[in-house]
């Protein structure tokens, strides 16, 4: 079992041009059971250095909110860097006027357990963003 992140957008931009050792975007690698959770026609699997989506910043619960890394909660530097790359890609697409959403799924989860969250990119910095297990993120900016 592991995390999987799937992103959708209404742009035809080739997001795979941002691929690196830490982040791999693969178009239309979204399993059928998750496609209905995404709003937009262009759908991508977001992999990390571990091939799945496990090596990003994740929390089980949203209770701690968005926050930059803290000394009292050690996080792997490459997971932080991978998450920064991801949110930079999202911010770039949203700033061009396109829509973006994504889901962070623990593979044992059911669709009924997915919680929706609005992410206002004007209110959080890149280093504050992290994923929450079994959440659907809708990204917005002014």
Task: Tell me the number of helical segments per DSSP (H or I, 4 or more residues long).
Answer: 2
Strand adjacency order, main sheet: 2-3-1-5-8-6
What's the number of extended β-strand segments? Answer: 8
State the secondary-structure class.
alpha/beta
Which ranges are low-confidence, i.e. pLDDT below 50, for 5 or more consecutive residues? none
Gyration radius, rounded: 14 Å
- Portion of residues in beta strands equals 25-35%
Count of spatially separate domains: 1
Please trace the helix and strand order, writing H or E for each element: EEHEEHEEEE
Shape: globular
How does this model look, in words?
The protein is α/β, with parallel strands linked by helices and 142 residues long. It has one domain. Helix content is 16%, strand content 30%. The chain contains two helices and eight strands, in the order ββαββαββββ. The strands form two sheets. It has a six-stranded mixed sheet with strand order 2-3-1-5-8-6, covered by helices on one side. The protein has a two-stranded parallel ribbon with strand order 4-7. The relative contact order is 0.25.
Features of the shown structure:
single chain, alpha/beta, six-stranded mixed sheet, 16% helix, two-stranded parallel ribbon
Summarize the structure.
With 142 residues, the chain is an alpha/beta fold. The chain is built from 2 helices and 8 strands; from the N terminus they run ββαββαββββ.
List the helices and strands and how they pair.
Blueprint (H helix, E strand, L loop, with lengths): L2 E7 L13 E5 L4 H4 L6 E7 L9 E2 L17 H19 L4 E7 L8 E6 L10 E2 L2 E6 L2
Parallel strand pairs: 4-7, 6-8
Antiparallel strand pairs: 1-3, 1-5, 2-3, 5-8
